[in-house]
Amino acid sequence: MVRRLVGAGANVRALTRDPRGAGLPEGVHVVAGDLTRPSSLAEALEGVDRVFLFPVAETAREVVALARSPARRLVRGRAYGRGHGRTG
Q1: Model confidence pTM above 0.85
Q2: What is the pLDDT of residue 44?
Q3: 13 in helix, strand or coil?
Q4: 45 φ, ψ to 5°?
Q5: Which domain of life is it from (predicted)?
Q6: Which of 13, 40, 67, 87 is most deeply packed, by most CB within 10 A?
Q7: DSSP type of residue 25
Q8: What's the mean pLDDT in 9-20?
Q9: How far apart are CA 61 and CA 65, in angstroms?
Q10: Are 17 and 30 within 8 A, CB to CB?
């Protein structure tokens, strides 16, 4: 999704636990944060108007509420359980 948005000319900010190892395309504003720790999301959400979000089940409600605050549009994918899809 990130590559498609960048290819379409969108300004993209991506949240990851490991910004140096994320391997995101050039032009993406990479921000450190962790969806299992909602308190780490402030910088990633500052000034956004659209959010594509795939929360983890344990913090999904809190993270969705935080994302809705600044965002005019929120697209939410399925919440994952602890450890699902994690690489680190």
Answers
A1: no
A2: 86
A3: strand
A4: -90, -10
A5: Bacteria
A6: 67
A7: P
A8: 91
A9: 6
A10: no
Q: Is 86 or 17 the better-scoring residue by pLDDT?
A: 17
pLDDT recorded at residue 31: 92
Tokens of 21: 């190892």
| Predicted confidence (pLDDT) per residue in 25-81, tens digit | 999 999 999 999 999 998 888 888 888 888 788 888 898 888 887 777 777 776 555
Q: Which two tokens stand for residue 17?
A: 């636990």
Helices (H), the chain: 2-7, 42-45, 60-68
Q: What are phi and psi of 14, to 5 degrees?
A: -120, 135
Amino acid at 15: L
Q: Which amino acid is at 84?
A: H
The structure tokens listed for 8 are: 């379409």
Q: Which two tokens stand for residue 41?
A: 């999301």
What residue has token string 């308190």?
A: 39
Cβ partners under 8 Å of residue 19, min gap 6: 30, 31, 32
